[in-house]
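INTERNAL AUDIT FORM
Audit reference: QA-55
Scope: verify that the stored structure record matches its stored sequence.
Auditor: D.O.
Record contents follow.
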Amino acid sequence: MAKADIINWLNKNEANYTEISKQIWDHPEVGYTESFASSLQMKALEEAGFKVSTGIGEIPTAFIAEYGKGKPVIGILGEFDALPGLSQQVSTTYSPVVANGPGHGCGHNLLGTAGVEAVIALKEQMEAEVLPGTIRYYGCPAEELLSGKTFMARDGVFDDLDCALTWHPGTSNMTANFRMQALTAIEFYFSGRTAHAGAAPHLGRSALDAVELMNVGANYLREHVPDGTRIHYQITNGGMAPNVVPDSASVYYFLRGVDRNQVEDLEARLIKVAQGAAMMTETSVRWEIKAGCYDTLPNKTLNELMFAQAEIGGKLAFTEEEEKFAKELCLTINSAELAAAKQQSLMIGGDGITDLDAQFYHNPNYFGTTVGGSTDVGDVSWIVPVGSIMTTCAPLGVNLHTWQATASFGSSIGMKGMHLAAKVMALTAYELLLNQDGTIEKAKAEFMNSKKGRDYIPGIPADVKPPVQKNNTDPVSTR
């Protein structure tokens, strides 16, 4: 009966949270600038009776909303940052709202709002039953920069949680049994000596030469790294003019690996390459770590509990108009991407055909498989057991970080997936508050075994401050 009450409350209040999500979609803000989204969510939570703490991890847009008292302490993770350059209308043709403007191509307008929706619904039930325990919503900024949760984790705000839950918009309803990669984002700054490149090049010491030699060394390094490792880079400063030997230049690297140990080993080797490049060019080099997230540790105990609640939460149903939108949107996607999406659907148990898949899948054979991409949810998953799902918010074949994704996540399709995620998280958190079958203890035992004795140490050094932006400048997504 209690779960039916939670579902009924969510169904009754869907329109409120659809509006919140739509407002955030209409006002996209990149990482560390999400003042509109953060304020909107905090207002909804405060009005619902939550105690809100702001400025978490020295980030103005990070906050925690809490209700209740005592154990267990259950957290729900939310995000709300957008991506640069992905502005798009809810349309099946490429139609930016603002040319080169930001857009919610990863669906964080949905992601955070579902968490707000879930904790408020759960609070209503806790009040009705006078249930003990504490629930928290974490408003986490800058996931696309892979550092928001790391700065928050460095502050210790996840340490006293018993379990945490999260989700992500996707093209299937499924438990997230896979692992995502650890990542370090590190920028190298070379300093040399300027000179006239035509009249006196021998007097100069080119910082750009050092950057280019470093990149050559990094590309040779690729042959001697573990399978699955990724090295990406971008020259962020190449000098001011061709006829001036540049005395400063910089290059920004993303290093990915299956776990934190692998990435840290790669980081140490790359630093040696940078030092070698500086030696060859008689320049100097310094570096700054800008993100250092962990690989995600899936928790089968919590994922299975979430799957069980998905069956209670109800099946998605799509209208003819939504099916038509999905088919037309898929016509804009190339055949190779569609084929890859169908193959992935088959791996989790889907039919690889249906554009809008309403089934919910749990494939234990997929558990622990490492996939491409990274998220700072990984940091939380090394501190506390985390359960995670994905729901159908876009048609099969739509990739994240595309204009098609932005269109989907602002549509009624995205909203339906969001409300399903809210139901699953609210029902799962309710089960964890009751903890009648000792699920929390089982999840913690699995979590400790998954860590294999390694403790969480933040990947961002203590002296590095959050790169708080004053406006919607264009931080690079590292997802």
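Auditor finding: record pair retrieved intact. The chain has two domains: 2-178+295-451, 182-291.
Action required: none
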